[in-house]
Amino acid sequence: MPRNVIDGYDTIFDESDEQLGDEPPDLVIAPMGVGALAAAAVAHCAARALVAVVEPIHAACGLRSAEAGQPVTVAGPHDSIMAGLNCGHVSPVAWPFLRDGVDAFVTIDDARAEQAMRDLTAIGIEAGETGAASLAGLRALVESGTVAVGGRRALVIVTEGATDPDAYARIVGDVTRRD
User: In this structure, which long-range contacts are made by residues 168-175, counting pairs with CB atoms below 8 Å and at least 24 apart in sequence?
Assistant: First the structure.
């Protein structure tokens, strides 16, 4: 079943290829929970693009596993507002993809996810905490300088809308849309 999930996520990348046509990205940023979506990003994109994955600071199971060279469990509490990314261990099926194909593991705090939510709202994209994580991760990657990002075509995977309407309203507040 986990391999089927990874294969199912590949649809996202097939559709993005179709939409982007002759201008594919050379940097892909995806959220990292247990790693199924990240594994799909690697399987589909790593041959032609750098792949970065984004995790909450206190649930960085991918980063910690990469540092250890094997899957490890990150003890909780996993209390980030990015609920879909609050995972303490990587999928054993996803791990080989992550180990061999992720170019950068990026960790972010909740404040970065909240700012990304507001910024996405300002351009007409309703993204929840987990969904906005990839934009926040791209920004953190740029700031860290660990991967040369300048001049790259980046594909930022936004995986969800406002799954918690009350939290969304509290975080986003009154954002004026910029066109």
Answer: 168/117, 168/126, 168/128, 171/81, 171/114, 171/117, 171/118, 171/129, 172/117, 172/118, 172/121, 173/118, 175/118, 175/121, 175/122
Q: What is the pTM of this model?
A: 0.91
Percentage of residues of the chain with pLDDT beyond 90: 77
Q: Does some domain include residue 177? A: no
Q: Looking at residue 7, what is its pLDDT?
A: 83
Contacts of residue 63, Cβ cutoff 8 Å, sequence gap at least 6:
55, 105, 107
Give SS3 for 105. Answer: strand
**Residue-number span of the structural domain to which 14 is assigned:** 2-172
Domain count within the chain = 1
Tell me if 179 is assigned to some domain: no
Tokens of 101: 């194909």
Q: What is the pLDDT of residue 146?
A: 82
State the Cα angle at 17 between 11 and 20, rounded to 5°: 140
CATH number for 144: 3.40.50.1100
Between 106 and 167, the more confident residue is 106
